[in-house]
Each structure stands twice: as structure tokens, then as C-alpha cells.
């Protein structure tokens, strides 16, 4: 955010607009912070707190593209590199929260993009994917969203 004054100021304005009315920070006003959700998503894409997730082990022999992976192989998933893969992300290295704006909604409405971190978009796996993905995703997001 320090490197992106435009984004910082936009976010500050949103937070002030939501909370200046009462002066209190309350959970119920969180839904008004639509831009904050985009900023958090973009931060998780470029800077996943667990960049290599947790190591896994293949249960049985499998093939992924040209790779033949024997059973019981230790596997490391590079979520950091996947989140910056230019095959899946336009201007992958640029911090650009607006990339997640769903084109069906205007920016002032509640925003939700079809690309999310919930484990079904494999280009965005900051919380992992599959049956061992993060259990604390809802709690973690609530903590991040609370200013
Ligand atoms: C922004 C916050 C968080 C991030 C980015 C995050 C990320 C992750 C990642 C990447 C994994 C490994 C998933 C995989 O290897 O596929 C994981 C696992 C896990 N996380 Fe989180 N986590 C966060 C917050 C939390 C919180 C707040 C809790 C608990 C309250 C939590 C509990 C767990 C547990 C129990 C697992 C292991 C799940 C399993 O192995 O079955 N996480 N998390």
C-alpha cells in the first residue's frame, strides 16, 4: 500500500466514509468496505502468507501433464509463483485490486469476482485447495477485514 498511494487513498476514503458516521468501528459496517475486500484479495494473490502451502504426499502413482509422479512422493505447491503466473493473470506483477471487480457489478456495489481463493480457482490458492485446504479461512478473512 505504501508503494501505491492511489490505492491507499481510495481505501482510506472508503474506511472513513463507512466509519466517520458513528466514530465507532463496528462489524456491521464491514459489508460497506467493498474495495477493502479487493485489496485483501490482491494482497493474498501477490503475497500469500504460506507461499509454499503445506507439503503434501501423493497417495498413488499419477500423471500431471508430462510428469509421472510415483506414489509417496513429497510435493510442494508454489502458490507464490502460481499467483504471479502471467498465463493466468494480466500484468501479473502489478498490485491492482480492481482486477477482481466483477464486470457485472459497478464498483460502488458489493463486489465479488468469479476468481476467488476458496479452492476452486487453481490460479489463486493462497489458502490451498482440496480436502486439506485451510480450515480457518472464514475466521482469517474476518480478522483481515476488521480495520
Ligand atoms: C490469512 C490467513 C490464513 C492463510 C493465508 C492461511 C493459509 C493456509 C494454507 C495455505 C494452508 C495449507 C493448505 C494446503 O496445504 O492445501 C493452511 C492450513 C491450515 N490452516 Fe490456515 N491460513 C490462514 C489462517 C488460518 C486460521 C486463522 C486458522 C485457525 C483458526 C487456520 C487453520 C488452518 C489449519 C488447521 C490448517 C491445516 C488443515 C489441514 O491440514 O487439514 N488458518 N492455511
TrEMBL record:
Residues 1-21 are annotated as: Disordered. Its cofactor is heme. Keywords: Heme, Iron, Membrane, Metal-binding, Monooxygenase, Oxidoreductase, Transmembrane, Transmembrane helix. It holds the Pfam family p450. It is found in: Membrane. GO terms for cellular component: membrane. It is a single-pass membrane protein. InterPro entries: CYP450_71D, Cyt_P450, Cyt_P450_CS, Cyt_P450_E_grp-IV, Cyt_P450_sf. Heme binds at residue 134. The keyword Lipid biosynthesis does not apply. GO terms for molecular function: heme binding; iron ion binding; monooxygenase activity; oxidoreductase activity, acting on paired donors, with incorporation or reduction of molecular oxygen. SUPFAM superfamilies: Cytochrome P450. It comes from the Eukaryota. The keyword Transmembrane applies. Belongs to the cytochrome P450 family. This is Cytochrome P450. It comes from Gossypium gossypioides.
